[in-house]
Amino acid sequence: MSILESNLSLRQGRCSLVLGGVRSGKSRLAERLARESRLPVTYLATATASDDEMRARIAAHRQHRPADWALIEEPLALPAALASSCTAGHCVLVECLTLWLANLLWAEDPGRLEAELAALDALLPRLPGQVIFVGNEVNMGVIPVNDLARRYGDLAGSLHQRIAAQAQQVVLTVAGLPLVLKGPSISVG
To answer: Could you tell me the pTM of the whole model?
Structure first.
């Protein structure tokens, strides 16, 4: 990419989607991409510390992040947080889409869920700067037994497809290795 193309992509916005299963290396890859952007980074966290295991996961993520990254913790109002934090010449790393969806489902407010999804869809093409979304690929196994799990998988798959359609880069991470599905290649690092 030339300097001119790079500057244009910063003004128009650049979107990456990093998918993978649990412990696939997707978060570490997304953090690496954010560091390599050489832009100021805001880490937009959607997780909530609902139990000891989740508190440990959050603590591990904190240790991987550089100290100079800004942090926004927002479990439900992701589009509003993105709208206020995305600026030209800045990188926002969203960790993670599927936790955000789970939070919205657990809130048991179908109107809010639909409104937040619609707001994200409307906002995506207008975001300046660089945005890196992280999501768990949850639909590569058996069909879940209960309706809530099926709905969650359907929502996650649909959301990932909509973001992937607009993203300049989509990466599936397996066993710590990036498989680029769309966009520029990534070195195995």
So the answer is: 0.90
